[in-house]
Write a structure and sequence with these properties.
It is built from 24 helices and eleven strands. It is mainly alpha-helical. Among the domains are: 298 residues, Orthogonal Bundle (Farnesyl Diphosphate Synthase), CATH 1.10.600.10; 183 residues, 3-Layer(aba) Sandwich (Rossmann fold), CATH 3.40.50.
Length: 714
């Protein structure tokens, strides 16, 4: 089409009605900073285009799409989606004349880089380096693994859709309307944006039953279609002027319904758009009942609309991308691209020939975008990152984080165990309350424990449980932990966990966490059956939950964000000195502003009315248990020293609460009576398991002698 005709076409189509959205039009505060980075990306990695093309791309400000679609993201969180938006738009221009084989090669190479199968940075600047950096940016902003994988799947779907469009463009025949809609669901980019929206406002916490609800999934599809539709309206004159691109709603409608004029097709296409918009807004206002998640789900649905409006707002800006003569020709029509394994290269005979960057050889290690080894390094994270850590002693009862101002629970009924919960806040310098540190006990976690391959290799050896005293014990670092791991002990652990949870008012944690203030990562050391870790995984689906234990007795079916590993928390004797090997190490591992909490059971008995006979069998048993534990460097009484130990280590704002655990059904309060009966059953079930190894190693008692002792108070 000659320039005069093109100018007239643009003018005529500009007078037709455009889509109109009822959603707020918001702009991210980092839009200009992001645009500055975007211009650097163009200079660095777009040398496969001409200088004039690079200048045009800078004017287009493709990064603004992300800044308008996601107005609440931080600059770090914007980078992955902005880089995706920018480099995919440019490569779409570049591959406009490529064949399906070439597109498949691009898709495969890009997928390998996005998933980390190729995990080395491409040696040359270019498109593939930008794809590589999408993954690096996602790692840098701590994007949850499951969310990143959904985002990548949507990108791969988009690249697949590009290839599917080729058959219609090659035939210069618009696809049937149904086929067009299927293509637009893939190629509009809307599905990618909808997946990435979970990075905003803690929507990553939304559980699967919300995000996979048919209404939400339909809204994802409608958002993708709306973005595809309005892109077609804006880009129609460009596509008519250049020819060869017929996957456009207006062209499809004109052919589908046999309409004689472009204006009729435009009006019919706008009706299709408005029908989709009407359904979308209806679903926004008519969400199913999501219970606890209702408010967050409603905000998510609202922000899906903001996302659609944001993409459209960029399309209507005067960027110079949709004006007469703006089509960027980066490869001649007579210059088909050739591919080789290392990268993509064009023939050099054409004046529009370009060369892609070389792609490194395929990575041969474990496939995974976010390797668990990243969890083992302590480093400063963005100020809006939330992280927390669990660590507990050999009773395996530490299953809760701390709260800023924990309230003492009334406990006017005597009990025999003191349950101490101590919370420590950060270092003694100026601390921003919103700045949480990466809390990782490097002194308890061996690097090999985080390797997928190494952990798998432990499977057979760690399940060959040694048997002693008629009970089985852990095989990994055998002898490190004195309690059994057999079915009877697993049943007791479940009962014990339930008792503690009920005593704490059914709280999973005391930390200032919520659905809008989630932890990024939780490590539950000595996780036992893993039931607490699993509950946390269900509650916070966007968090990474890791449990470690000497015995692999956790279930196989767990939430996708929960991982269990065999590891010994006492590898370096961390229970020998609580102050030097726990409190000080925890302080050293925390960033300023970090939270640490420990929960300890004082493994002794008492009566508030002093009626317990100190010379009786019960008192003697628990006294021997405390003595033997101390001699084995597994102290059973820590609650009394916690606060002092943490303050000596340098922690500030140390708070401590003590709760009493009743034994038996004597309490007047029905809740405490129920807890007391369950705790009594827990102790009676565990008396032998607690004592067999400890009494044998320390006092040289046989199992028969221990049984005689136990029989006195059964």
């Amino acid at each position: 089409m000659d320039p005069i005709q093109e100018e007239l076409l643009y003018k005529e189509l500009s007078l037709l009605p455009r889509p109109c959205y009822p959603f707020p039009d918001r702009v991210n505060q980092h839009i200009d900073s992001l645009a500055s980075e975007y211009r650097e990306w163009i200079d660095t990695d777009c040398d496969f285009t001409s200088a004039s093309a690079r200048a045009a791309y800078k004017r287009h400000r493709l990064s603004d799409i992300a800044a308008r679609a996601f107005p609440s993201l931080s600059l770090e969180e914007l980078r992955p989606v902005a880089r995706f938006t920018s480099c995919l738009a440019i490569i779409d221009d570049f591959l406009d004349k490529a064949d399906a084989v070439e597109l498949e090669r691009v898709r495969n190479e890009a997928t390998a880089l996005l998933l980390g199968i190729n995990d080395r940075e491409p040696p040359r600047a270019g498109f593939y380096r930008q794809v590589y950096l999408i993954r690096q940016d996602a790692l840098a902003c701590e994007m949850p693994q499951y969310l990143y994988r959904h985002f990548v799947d949507a990108i791969v779907g988009l690249l697949t859709g590009y290839g599917a469009e080729k058959q219609f463009n090659a035939a210069d025949t618009p696809p049937p309307l149904n086929a067009y809609m299927t293509l637009r669901l893939q190629t509009s980019g809307g599905n990618c944006y909808a997946k990435y929206l979970c990075m905003q406002k803690n929507y990553r916490l939304l559980p699967n039953h919300v995000l996979q609800n048919p209404a939400i999934r339909r809204m994802h599809g409608l958002a993708s279609l709306l973005i595809g539709y309005h892109n077609d309206f804006i880009s129609l004159p460009k596509e008519l002027a250049r020819g060869g691109d017929v996957v456009n709603l207006v062209m499809v409608v004109q052919r589908e319904f046999g309409l004689s004029t472009l204006q009729q097709a435009w009006a019919r296409a706008l009706d299709i758009h408005d029908d989709a918009l009407g359904e979308f807004t209806f679903l926004q206002k008519s969400l199913p009942d999501f219970g606890l998640w209702q408010q967050m789900a409603s905000e998510y649905a609202e922000d899906l609309g903001v996302m659609v409006q944001g993409v459209y707002a960029w399309h209507t800006q005067k960027t110079g991308r949709y004006v007469p003569g703006a089509y960027i020709l980066v490869a001649g029509a007579d210059s088909p691209l050739r591919a080789n394994y290392g990268g993509l290269a064009s023939r050099s005979a054409t004046p529009y020939a370009v060369t892609y960057d070389d792609c490194p050889a395929p990575y041969t290690g474990p496939i995974g975008s976010f390797r668990l080894s990243h969890l083992c390094t302590s480093r400063t994270l963005p100020s809006d990152t939330r992280n927390t850590m669990q660590s507990h002693g050999h009773y395996e009862l530490s299953q809760h984080d701390s709260q800023r101002n924990p309230q003492r629970e009334d406990a006017d009924v005597a009990g025999i165990f003191d349950f101490d919960v101590t919370k420590i806040f950060g270092h003694d310098n100026v601390i921003e309350p919103e700045s949480w540190a990466l809390i990782v006990f490097l002194f308890t976690l061996n690097q090999k424990a985080w390797s997928l391959s190494d952990s798998a290799s432990l499977s057979e050896s760690t399940q060959a449980y040694p048997e002693e005293f008629g009970r089985t014990y852990h095989a990994y670092h055998a002898g490190s932990y004195p309690f059994p791991n057999d079915i009877a002990e697993q049943d007791r652990l479940k009962l014990q966990s339930d008792c503690v949870k009920h005593l704490l008012g059914n709280k999973l944690y005391f930390a200032p966490l919520s659905l809008t203030n989630p932890p990024l990562r939780v490590i539950d050391v000595a996780t036992g059956l893993g039931d607490w870790a699993i509950e946390m995984g269900d509650l916070f689906p966007g968090s990474i939950i890791v449990g470690t234990d000497l015995s692999p007795i956790q279930p196989d079916e767990v939430p996708p964000n929960v991982h269990f590993y065999v590891e010994d928390a006492s590898t370096v004797g961390c229970w020998g000195s609580f102050q030097t090997q726990i409190a000080q190490e925890a302080f050293a591992s925390l960033e300023p502003g970090g939270w640490f909490e420990s929960q300890e059971i004082d493994g002794n008995i008492c009566c508030d009315d002093d009626t317990l006979n100190p010379d009786g069998a019960l008192a003697q048993y628990f006294g021997d248990l405390v003595t033997a534990s101390e001699r084995m460097n597994r102290p059973a009484i820590l609650g009394a020293i916690l606060k002092e130990a943490y303050e000596a280590a340098g922690f500030v704002d140390v708070q401590q609460i003590s709760l009493k655990m009743p034994i038996g059904g004597w309490a007047k309060d029905s809740r405490l009576r129920s807890i007391g009966l369950a705790w009594q059953a827990n102790l009676l079930e565990g008396l032998g398991g607690f004592a067999y190894q400890l009494f044998n190693r320390v006092f040289d008692r046989t199992s028969e002698e221990t049984e005689v002792c136990i029989q006195y108070f059964l």
